[in-house]
Design a protein that fits this description.
Elements (H helix, E strand, L loop, with lengths): L13 E6 L5 E7 L17 E6 L6 E10 L7 E3 L5 E2 L5 E6 L3 E9 L2
Antiparallel strand pairs: 1-2, 2-8, 3-7, 4-5, 4-8, 6-7
């Protein structure tokens, strides 16, 4: 992910991240922008596929919890995400899949 240009029309995923004061947790929210709405129809948005989230140096993942929100999932808008959140063997990155019209919220806890 390249955040060097702040262009809200760019079809890349949007990501915000926060580190706890003690440095033991990283919380991230990721979402996809809607695609262009043509002919008055609804937008399906962009499918970002699977992305690798690399942790800062010295942060090894002990655990992760997450929630996925899907824009058109009537009655089941917020779903647990842990079963699809993959932590790399070296515990220094994780893989998430971000489809169209989705928001994923993940909290990573640092290995002590």
């Amino acid at each position: 992910m390249d955040a060097s240009v702040c262009d809200m029309d760019n079809p890349t995923a949007r990501i915000t991240a926060y580190v706890s004061k003690d440095g033991k947790e990283i919380s991230m929210v990721m979402w996809t922008p809607p695609s262009d709405i043509s002919a008055g129809g609804a937008s399906d948005g962009y499918d970002m596929g699977t992305m690798e989230i690399k942790m800062p140096t010295g942060f090894e993942i002990a655990s992760a919890v997450g929630i996925r929100s899907i824009g058109d999932a009537q009655g089941q808008m917020h779903q647990p995400y842990e079963d699809q959140l993959l932590i790399a063997a070296n515990r220094q990155s994780a893989f998430v899949t971000l489809g169209p019209r989705q928001i994923i919220s993940v909290k990573f806890t640092k290995q002590e």
